[in-house]
């Protein structure tokens, strides 16, 4: 069982995340709030916490006047905070270090479109150093998440290949395609045969898109499948607000697991109550 949206639980606690660093800003200004968010999810039943490093990068911190040495410290702290929260609960808990897409740094919704106009080499260099620093901080796995297109996935996989660093690869998707429009089967296929990839799947998508993605991932890779969709609401990047109805997030969990999902959680607009409901649903199923 994965956790839910980091931004959701922080906003529920009254934190303003309108900054371009989003939840990563609190690594600098209020790390205790990040730890408390992880703890809330662990107590709700999450076994895996995803770090607050999704929107954290050397480029993003530099734009705020934060130098490389401090940026490294902040990236490492994201792992330490999740690990520290795990020490406050019973049972085995794991930490997944979030590797968000390049588009997250732009803070303009580009992670829902992809096609940034960068070369593969530029994408490789963007991801390499952050990935190395986060792994050295001691997580159990890297969560390469919300990847909008195959080009960026291939760039990250180039960094991972032969490194021995375990990671899951999760695309942002609409229907049976990535957010950039490629068929999900083609997108999942790029991870086949790469030993470092322990699971593939989708996140930050509509709950209704999950079952088809699970089936596609299983057909193409045979790997365990990771899924953590949004609540069902949609992000309006122009208005910077959520629209629509978030009902119906929890009921499909049995269908997802039945189709082959092995790592299940929530993304945007899902909180500890949703994760508790998912955990209860999975317990009933078992």
UniProtKB/TrEMBL annotation:
UniProt name for this protein? Homocysteine S-methyltransferase
Q: Could you say which residues bind Zn(2+) here?
A: 204, 267-268
The UniProt note on the cofactor reads as follows: Binds 1 zinc ion per subunit.
Q: Does the keyword DNA damage apply?
A: no
Positions of the Hcy-binding domain:
1-282
For this UniProt record, the keywords arranged alphabetically read as follows: Metal-binding, Methyltransferase, Transferase, Zinc
Q: Which GO terms describe its molecular function?
A: S-adenosylmethionine-homocysteine S-methyltransferase activity; zinc ion binding
> What InterPro entries does the record point to?
BHMT-like (IPR017226), HCY_dom (IPR003726), HCY_dom_sf (IPR036589), Hcy_S-methyltransferase (IPR051486)
NCBIfam families found in the cross-reference section: PRK09485.1 (NF007020)
Mention one GO biological process in which this protein takes part, according to its record.
methionine biosynthetic process
Give the SUPFAM superfamilies listed for this entry: Homocysteine S-methyltransferase
Is Methyltransferase among the key words of this record?
yes
Names of the cofactor(s):
Zn(2+)
Q: Supply the source organism for this entry.
A: Lentzea xinjiangensis
């Amino acid at each position: 069982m994965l956790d839910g949206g980091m931004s959701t639980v922080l906003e529920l606690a009254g934190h303003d995340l309108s900054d371009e660093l989003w939840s990563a800003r609190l690594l600098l200004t209020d790390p205790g709030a990040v730890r408390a968010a992880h703890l809330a999810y662990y107590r709700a039943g999450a076994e895996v916490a995803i770090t607050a490093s999704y929107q954290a990068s050397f480029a993003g911190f530099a734009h705020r006047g934060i130098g490389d040495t401090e940026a490294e410290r902040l990236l490492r702290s994201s792992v330490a905070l999740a690990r520290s929260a795990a020490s406050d609960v019973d049972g085995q808990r794991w930490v997944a270090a979030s590797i968000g897409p390049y588009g997250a740094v732009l803070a303009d919704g580009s992670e829902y479109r992809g096609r940034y106009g960068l070369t593969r080499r530029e994408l490789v260099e963007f991801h390499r150093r952050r990935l190395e620093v986060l792994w050295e901080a001691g997580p159990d796995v890297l969560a390469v998440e919300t990847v909008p297109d195959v080009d960026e996935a291939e760039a990250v996989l180039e960094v991972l290949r032969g490194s021995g660093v375990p990671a899951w690869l999760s695309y942002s998707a609409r229907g049976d395609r990535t957010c950039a429009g490629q068929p999900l089967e083609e997108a999942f296929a790029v991870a086949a045969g790469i030993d470092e990839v322990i699971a593939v799947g989708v996140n930050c998508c509509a709950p209704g898109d999950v079952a088809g993605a699970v089936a596609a991932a299983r057909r193409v890779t045979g790997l365990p499948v990771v899924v953590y969709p949004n609540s069902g609401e949609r992000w309006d990047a122009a208005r910077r607000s959520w629209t629509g109805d978030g009902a119906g997030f929890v009921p499909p969990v049995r269908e997802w697991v039945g189709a082959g999902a092995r790592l299940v959680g929530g993304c945007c607009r899902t909180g500890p109550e949703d994760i508790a409901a998912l955990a209860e649903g999975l317990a009933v199923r078992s």
